[in-house]
């Protein structure tokens, strides 16, 4: 068993740097959905599944990202339903625009914070995974 694999030891600076890098990539991977349909849903899951054993510090970031993805889909659905209802122009369209903007802004802020070693919970995110 190598020094990095022994339980109960503090992470090495290299391991901490790698965790920060992958956490940043995890947050920013949500933006891949802007380029390829559904990539913003699939890429964060793949990153988490590949790196979860190697980098346990990635788990809080993954929960934040997954909570936001689920929340954004829910908010989008609500905005869409309101758009096709009688309240469309008044309520639904502003909700859809807000979700679109926040789905770009929150992952960028989360990625910047992760690069600094901070776990930043996205505001307005429903805490499904705790």
Low-confidence runs:
1-6
Quaternary structure type: single chain
Residue share in helix: 55-70%
Based on Cα principal axes, name the global outline.
elongated
Distance separating the two termini: 31 Å
Helix/strand-derived class? mainly alpha
What's the pLDDT, averaged over the residues? 89
Largest sheet: none
Q: Count every helix, treating DSSP H or I runs of 4 or more residues as helices.
A: 4
Q: Please tally the β strands and state the result.
A: 0
Rg result: 17 Å
User: What is the number of domains?
Assistant: 1
The amount of beta strand, in percent, is under 5%
One letter per element, helices H and strands E, the order comes to HHHH
Structure description:
This protein starts with 12 loop residues before the first helix and ends in a 15-residue tail after the last helix. With 130 residues, it is mainly alpha-helical. It contains four helices and no strands. It has one domain.
